[in-house]
Amino acid sequence: MLDLLKATVRTIPDFPKPGIQFKDITPVLADPKLLKLAVIALAEPWKDARITKVIGIESRGFILGAMLAERLGAGFVPVRKEGKLPFSTLKESYGLEYGIDTIEMHTDALDESDIVLIHDDVIATGGTAAAAQRLAESAGAQIAGYSFLINLTFLDGQSKLKPGLTCHSLIQY
Ligand code: AMP
User: Fold this and answer.
1) Does the CB atom of residue 120 touch ligand 1 within 6 A?
2) Mutation test of ligand 1: which of 128, 146, 153, 161 has the most ligand atoms closer than 8 Å to its C-beta?
3) Tens-digit pLDDT profile for the chain (173 aa)?
4) Which of 26, 37, 78, 112 has its CA 20 to 30 A from that of 68?
5) Residues 77, 132: contact at Cβ < 8 Å?
6) 91: which residues sit within 8 A by CB, 6+ positions away?
7) What is the pTM of this model?
């Protein structure tokens, strides 16, 4: 199953800019059997972790993140780029190759009772997932770990994540 999943992810060279090998998950999403299997496999390691909320990171993290939340019996919380969320927000900034980026979460999305799983389709340098973890912690929540469909391990994004927390991925490059 994991081999088929990996073979179905499409690599687009030089998108969105030269030098990036973009991992396009839309062929996985379009296949009903693979989509179901991917969500089951993503949920498996967390089924006894008492997750109360899954954070999905804009925008591809919303898709499998929401399905993962439903499967775990948890709620879903969107983390979005600055200026997109309508209610009052908490903000976190993180460094990019050139400049900084900011992500936001609603101030009432999480509280001290929450056990949170952070999900995105891809972990690359890890900066976005680390910023999402700081956002969740600033709301008082406890982080259970990180879940990705794809880990670009050659970029060592995992080293930016909170030490000691599980970082699970189905596909590695
Ligand atoms: P990161 O460098 O881990 O902070 O990744 C930033 C965001 O860009 C994440 O939401 C990833 O899903 C996305 N991303 C980064 N590199 C790729 C890639 N090669 N293919 C697809 N998405 C990517």
Assistant:
1) yes
2) 128
3) 899 999 999 999 999 999 999 999 999 999 999 999 999 999 999 999 999 999 999 999 999 999 999 999 999 999 999 999 999 999 999 988 778 999 999 999 999 999 999 999 999 999 999 999 999 999 999 999 999 999 999 999 999 999 999 999 999 99
4) 112
5) no
6) 82, 102, 103, 104, 135
7) 0.97
| Ligand 1 atom at minimal distance to the Cα of residue 57 | 10
- What residues contact 119, with CB distance under 8 A and at least 6 apart? 42, 54, 55, 56, 57, 61, 64, 65, 68, 146, 147, 148
Show the domains of the chain with their CATH numbers: 48-172 (3.40.50.2020)
Q: Give catalytic residue positions.
A: 60, 97
